[in-house]
Structures are given as C-alpha cells and as structure tokens.
Amino acid sequence: MEKILFVINPISGGNEKEDCKATVEKWWQQHQLNGQWMETTGEGDLERINTLIQEEKPETVVACGGDGTVNLVARALLGTPINMGILPLGSANGLATELRIPENVDEALDVLLHGQPLPLDGLLINGDHHAFHLADVGYNARLVQEFESGDQRGQLGYARSFLRVARNRPLAKFKIKTGEQAFSRRGVMATFANARRYGTGAIVNPDGRTDDGQFELCLFLPWPRWYLVWMSVLFFIGQIDKSRYVKIIPCRTLQLEADRPMPLQVDGELVGEARSISVEVLKDKVQVLRPAGD
C-alpha cells in the first residue's frame, strides 16, 4: 500500500481545513492508500517532516497550503527520489499556478494519482534561503511588506498597499555580476525567477522554465509614473520582456550589491532587508507531480 504524507498548514488562506481533510481522507480510503497528516506549527516543521520521512518512508509528500508550505516541503525533498505533490490551499498559490495544478481539491488529488513526476530546480539565496518559484528585492518585496504590516486583508488591502508603494517606490543602484557579465544600473526591482509568473497571474519571465538548470534575472529600470498602467498590461499579456524598462538575463550564479538596504522576499515570504544578495542554482532537484501531458 503506497504511503502518502500530507503536510498541511492549518491557517493558510485564512480558511478552515476540516472539510478539505475529510475529502482527502475519503479519497485515500477509496484508493486504498496509506495516508497520514502532519500539521505545521511554524516551529521545527522541517525537522518534523524529515523525521517522518525517515520513520514512515512515504513514496509521496504533499504540500497542502500556499507557497510557504510548498517551499517547506520542497526543502525536505531536495535530492531525494520522493515525489512532491501539491494541494493549493493558500491565498497565493504561485508555484501551483505555474505548474498548472488545479485549485479544485478533487482535481488536484487526481494529479497525485495520474500526474507525472518532473524535475524542479531550486535556488539558494545568500547561502541560507531556498527559492523554488520567485524571489525578488525592491518593488514587489516592498508591496509584500506593506500588505503584511497593514490591518486590512483581501483584494482591497492589497490594492491599498499597491497604491502606497506606487507613490513611493523603492529605487537603488545595483552592481550586478553574473557568470558572463558585470554592470551597474539603477533599478526599482530585481527578480530572481525560477518560474514565469507570480501568483496574481502577472508574467514576469515569459520564457522561463522550472527545470532548465538556470534562472533569470528580471531587472526593472525606473519607469515614468504614467507608464505603470501599460506595464501592468504587458505583465498580464505575457510581453513584459518587450518593455524598454525591463532587462531579462539568464544566469546560473549572480551577485547583486545595492547602495541601500531593500526588502527581500523568497517564495512569498519576507526574509528581511539586504544590500548584498547571492543567487545560485542548486545541483539537487525536487521531483514534482504535475498534470500528465504538461
């Protein structure tokens, strides 16, 4: 009987998970699978997952939550033959969206049964943080910072945070070294992209792949304020690379130095402020179950 470990974040997305858990348990009984739950608490979760993997030896570990839960499970499975599944239950499901994993629980469970395991690259940032989706410094990270520090959630809270950041956007001089070139530019944001799009659907890296052994530096140069609406259009039609204010550079390693501290987010989680950032592609990969045919 195949063993599956479900790692669930009980507070992701702001919704109760009891109905979801009942659906999952009915599903694993129906398919004669040996399912087990582990709830995250925010303390020692990675160590607990590793212990359960050693003790129970599951064939698949499923991240049930948002991007933070996916990042947690992916770190535990780096370089192992164990498949990772995803049940998108968060308020932001960026990597699940990128991998075309349905948000409908029944359809996502079907991917666990009939999906195909494909490799997923990982990035190591400042020798300490792992990214499997997108990390960035500057504009978007400031937006995450504003939203998390505000007292209003949902789309209205996000819109207010967006307007505040748009009025007072971060700006820094970046010194950048890749394996191929070195240069300096003033910028509003630098994105380190292992994927194509944010959880909002905005496509930041139109030609990106999650399994090609490289990432893309997406550098956003200062744009006129009137250009913001057109830039938003380019984001959502997948043509941001056509903008004169965006430079996209394939990399395997990168060193970035900013002339002032800027907020840094990794897979949707703020990790503080930084002036010096190193990024490299990890040799190990994660095997992720994706819809068959993708």
From TrEMBL:
Q: What name does UniProt use for this protein? A: DAGKc domain-containing protein
What's the source species for this entry?
Phaeodactylibacter xiamenensis
What sequence ranges are listed for the domain DAGKc? Answer: 1-129
Q: Which GO terms describe its cellular component?
A: plasma membrane
Alphabetized, the UniProt keywords read:
ATP-binding, Kinase, Nucleotide-binding, Transferase
Q: Name one GO molecular function term.
A: kinase activity
Pfam families linked to this entry = DAGK_cat, YegS_C
